[in-house]
Structure formats: C-alpha cells, structure tokens
Amino acid sequence: MIAELGAFALLLALCLSAAQAGLSAAGRGLNSPLLRGAGEGAAAAAFGAVAIAFAALTVAFVTSDFSVANVAANSHTDKPLLYKVAGVWGSHEGSLLLWCLCLTGFGAAVALLGRGLPAGLKSLTVASQGALGVLFLAFAVFASNPFLRLDPAPLQGRSLNPLLQDPALAFHPPFLYGGYVGFSIVFSFAIAALIEGRVDAAWARWVRPWTLAAWSLLTVGIALGAFWAYYELGWGGWWFWDPVENASFMPWLVGAALLHSAIVTEKRGALPGWTVFLALAAFTFSMLGAFLVRSGVLTSVHAFAVDPARGVLLLGILGVAAGAGFALFAWRAPSFAPGGVFAPVSRESTLVLNNVFLSAATATVLLGTLYPLIVEAVRGDAVSVGAPYFNLTFVPLIAAALVILPAGPLLAWKRGDLKGVLQRLWAAAGLALLASVAAYALYDPKKAFAALGVGLGVWLIAGALVEVAERAKLGRVSGAEAWRRLKGLPRGAWGMTLAHVGLGVFVLGACTETAWKVEAAETLALGQTMRAGAYELKLEQASSVDGPNYLAERGVLVATKGGREVCRPEPERRFYPAGRQTTSEVALCFRGLSDLYVVLGERRATEAGEPAWLVRAYWNPWARLIFLGPLLMAIGGAISLSDRRLRLAAVRKAAPAAKVEAAA
Fold it and tell me: Of all residues in the chain, what percent are helix, strand and coil, respectively (each to 5)?
C-alpha cells in the first residue's frame, strides 16, 4: 500500500505543478492577488506531495519491500540501514525523485519566503519553476516511476552497487542535487525577468542569494564525490576528468561566474544581458549533466543508467527548457541597455576578466567532455580525452583568473588605482614568490609549474587577508580602532574572504599532492616489507573478516619512519555475495596534512608457494587541503547567506536599472 501512496503522491505533484504554473501565470497576466496566492499555494503543495512520495520510497527501502522493483534492484536485507536509505537515491528512478524533490522545494521556498519580491516577478518565477516541475515530474511518472511493482515479489534483492555503499557517497547526491537543481530557481528568475522586460540592480540582488546557496551546496557535493573517489576506488586519485565529474564541474564554474557578474549588475547596473545569460546557462549545464549521467552515452562509475530511450526524453526536456529560455533571451537581448560605464582599471574590469576566464575554462571542459561523443557519432572511432588536454587548456585559463582575483576587491568601482593596489599587495606577492622558491628548492623532484602553483595558492590566501587588513586599516589606525572595524565588517565580507582563502588552500593541496605524490607497489608475503617515500611498510598479518553484508580479507601492516612505528593501516579486499562484486577498502594513515594511503590487492603466491598479496601504497603530501579548501569555500558561502543585507530585497536607492523595453 505504501508504494501506491507514493505513486499517487507523485502523480498529484505533477498536477499541482501544472496548477502552479497556470495559476501563477494567470495571476500575473490578470494582476490577481487571489490567483497569485493560489499558484504559490500549489507550489508548496507540490513540494509536499513529492516529499510524501520520497518518504514512501524511503519506507519501502528501509522495510525491504522487494515487491517494489526499484527496491529489489538496489537493496538487500543484509545491507546496513544507512545504505538502505542511500539506496533511495542510488538508482536512476530514485535519484530522479530526489531531483524532483529539490526542484519543487526551491519553488516552494520562493513562494513562501520571497515576500520582498515584486508581485509580477515572483509570480512569473513561481510559474517558470512550476513549468520545469511539469517536465521532470512527467518524466518521473511516465518514464521513470520508482514505484513499479513486481509480481511475484522476489525473496531477496540484488543489493546496491558496493562502490556506492559508503558514507561519503550516501551524502554526496543530496548535496550535489541541492546545487545542481538549485540553479533551476536562478533559471526561473531569469525567465521571469526576461518576460517582465526588466533586468536591473534589484533583480541581480534578488538572484545572488539563490545562486550562492546553490553554488555552496554544489561545492560540498563535488568535494564529497572527490573524497569518495579518493578513498573508495583505490587508485590513489581524487579527480580523473571523468565526463560525469565534468558534468557537475561545469555548472559550478558557471555559477562562480554568475556570482561575480551579478555583483557588477547590482552595484553598477552593467552586464545585465551577460548576467541573465549565465543564469540560464547554469541550469542548462545541470540538465546536460543529467542527460549525460542517465542516457548511457557515457560509461562511468558515476552513471545512474544506460537507457538510450529515456536519454532521448531527457534530451527533449533539455531542448524544450533551455531552448525556450535562450529563445526568450535572444528576443529580449537587443533591447538591453549597456549599463554603467567603467574604466579599464576598475573593480568592474577585474570581475569582467574573471568572467571571461571562467567562461573560457568552462568551454574547454565542455569540449573535452563532448568531443569523444562527437567523434564517435561522426566517424565511429572511440577516442578519449584525459588529463593532458585539460592541463594544457583548462589550467592556464583558471590560473589567469586566480592571479587577478586578489586585486578585484581592492580596486574602486568605476575607476581604480592600479599602482595603489599593487603597493598594498606587495607583501602577498613576496610571500607567494618565497613559497614558490621554497617549493622548488625543497621538494624532489624539482617541478617548476608545481612550485608556481604553490605560490599561486599562497597568493590567494595572502591576498584575501590583505583585503581584510585594508578594510580594518591595520597599521594605519590604533589597535582598538582596527579591532572595532574588524568586528563591524559585514558577514558577506567575511564569507567572501573565507571562500577566497578556501580556494587558495585547495590550490596548495592540489598542486602539492599531484606533483609530489609517491607510489609503490609490491607483492608481500607475511613479514616482508616495502618502501613508500620515507615510510617502510611491513605486512604483519592477514585474516578473514565477516562484515554485515560482505566477506573480506583484511591485511594488517606496520608503517614505520626512521625505525619508529607511526601507524597500523588495515586495508581490506571485500566480496559482496549479493552482487557477486569485489571492492577494495583503502586504509588511510593521517600524517598531519598528508596521507599514507594503502590498498590490499588480490592474493598471489610466492615462488616457495607461500600466500602473498599485492600491496599498493601512496604518499600523498598535503592531500587534506584538497578537501579542506572546498569546505572553507562552502562555509564562506553559508556565512555570506547569513548576512541579512544579502537576504533582503534590494534597497530603494539601487544602482541605475538596466531596463529592457517591453515589446510592442
């Protein structure tokens, strides 16, 4: 009965989303508060209906109701409770239901919390979000229903993919989808503004908090996915430029560009068309990612489904939603006013350069992701695009964007003093140069580009701190006055500083770990040793372990440095009988900011016939910073969102509006 309740709630949500779109649009067209209120109520009710459907599917997983096809395909009675719940979004159907939950949730949030929004803009935003809800809920109801029954019901399920039975991946999709789908409300704001014929400073101010919320959630989601790949897949890396990884990274890049572009539109009334374009593009890339993950056009451990038929439907949804949005943009674009004028050296110019580099970097990722598909479709050849391409194209562009980043907040609006900014940043530049020289001199082997990357990370951190010091006038006023100024800084300023510091921390970790990691692999019998960098590893013990839903071989190694024991890594090789799959469970020894990373491979035999195991070990210097950096960025976003000024509607004395002339 619970499955039927869920199916009914999902169908009801589809009808409510249609009502949300129709009533809100009619309320705007007829200027009727009653119809507008009814549309907002339908938005809240649609979210409630999807929440009921999601809860019903969760109950089916927790109670192991194998009469539901989705549960039978992705769960098992022996599976721990956490992974039973994670199984709800571990399949195509369940993850699409999570997508719809986020989509309707953001629509309900605007309907219930957007009290300061102009009535017309709010109604059209809610209507646009309802139209998106109709598209995706119809796809869920008619092509990807998670509540289909099996008759007869099997006695046991096939279980969830063992690689997905991990705490990091249990929380990764909700955060990822919060960001992915969060950009839908930004898309709807853009549609509403284009229909209204007004894109101005107030609109940019209303869009910024929603963009920041989605971007922050997506940052956490990507970081959790990278951490899962790092310690669960057992290959010692955290990013492989996998097409599905790229699919989540592109909306993040566009979202970052949108955050900076919206500031220019809000403060100076400039770049209105470009800001709207980015608002449309962010969710378009999210929908493209959904198509790539679910259509079967790409093969990846991250993919949810291999179903070309449903892929065509998703491509159709992408075409309808994005096509309508960009067609509306093309219609309105000629009427956009140019906005505020600014000098080549100004804060606006640095933000524009930031957008140029971020957009070009996104284009390189898009080309590298789609090129193999294009070649295969045209010539039938299978090609791959890997790290060398991205290192040559993406890295220089993003490095250029990061070099100019600290200067932006120090420049004045409209016309800045470049010489004065450089004088204020000399200490940060000196620290960055010193860090690069030290990294080149002390690390072995000597890698010039990696050393420059270390300097770039220090430049970002020091530059962000210099900006705070300038706000407090440290060294120019008394200590008490500087402290008073620091305490008076708005939360938005602290959030921006922390986000930029987090970016620098990530760059430090990524450059150091990638350039100077050490890898070793040997076949060890009990009592034998191997070296990984400065560490010696001895295989002391190997035993069989019975897990809740797996059987494992567990190795116990002793890691020593300079003759002193530092840790005892215990890697495992697990076998899951339900799915007949084998996985590796990595052992991590935390050594400050670095990791000693150990993987136990398959059992072999020595020449004397003794049992032995392939052991792979990695020394990953400063690997902790790779995951700490994005966490700091997301916390910075949350701090900025807590700033009351960002969450309120635009002040009346906003920057000059960039009006769009209404069509005759």
Answer: 65, 10, 25
Read off the amino acid at residue 252.
W
How far, in Å, CA of 585 to CA of 552, rounded?
9
Q: What is the mean pLDDT of residues 301-322?
A: 79
Q: 276 and 137: one domain?
A: no
Query: Which segments of 374-528 are extended strands (E)?
Result: 518-525
- Run of H or E including 144: none
Ramachandran bin of 573, using left for φ above 0, alpha for ψ from -120 to 50, beta for the remaining angles: beta
CA proximity to 467, closest of 506, 431, 422, 424: 424
Cβ density class 128-140: b for 16+ within 10 Å, e for less: bbbbbbbbbbbbb
- Residue 304 banded pLDDT, cuts 50, 70, 90: low
Structural domain that includes position 36: 1-164
Residues 325-365 pLDDT 10s? 999 999 998 888 777 788 889 999 999 999 999 999 999 99
**Cβ-count burial 328-364 (b if 16+ within 10 Å, e if not):** bbeebeeebbebbebeebbbbbbbbbbbebbbbbbeb
- Report which secondary-structure segment, H or E, holds 403: helix 387-404
pLDDT at 13: 98
Q: Note whether residue 569 is domain-resident.
A: yes
Residues 96-145 have pLDDT tens digits of: 999 999 999 999 999 999 888 999 999 999 999 999 999 999 999 999 99
pTM over 0.90: yes
Question: Are 170 and 159 contained in the same domain?
Answer: no
Q: Which of 345, 458, 322, 450 is nearest to 407 (CA)?
A: 345
Same domain, 440 and 459: yes
Contacts of 70-73 spanning 24+ positions with Cβ under 8 A = 70/94, 70/146, 70/147, 70/148, 71/157, 72/150, 72/153, 72/154, 72/157, 72/158, 73/157, 73/158
- Residue in 413, 411, 407 with CA at minimum distance from that of residue 428: 407
Looking at the fold, whether 277 and 316 belong to one and the same domain comes out as yes
Please compute, for residue 365, the number of CA atoms within 13 A of its CA located in the half-sphere on the CB side: 29
Same domain, 170 and 121: no
Cβ neighbour number for residue 414 with a 10 Å cutoff: 16
Q: How far, in Å, CA of 633 to CA of 254, rounded?
A: 16
Give the model confidence (pLDDT) of 374-427 as tens digits: 887 788 777 888 889 999 999 999 999 999 999 999 999 989 888 999 999 999
Q: How far, in Å, CA of 20 to CA of 38, rounded?
A: 8
Residue 4's CB is within 10 A of a number of other CB atoms, namely 11
Do residues 248 and 186 touch, judged by C-beta distance below 8 A? no
Helix 347-379 / helix 243-268 crossing angle, nearest 10 deg: 150
- Amino acid in the structure at residue 261: S
Residues 138 and 28 placed together within one structural domain of the fold:
yes
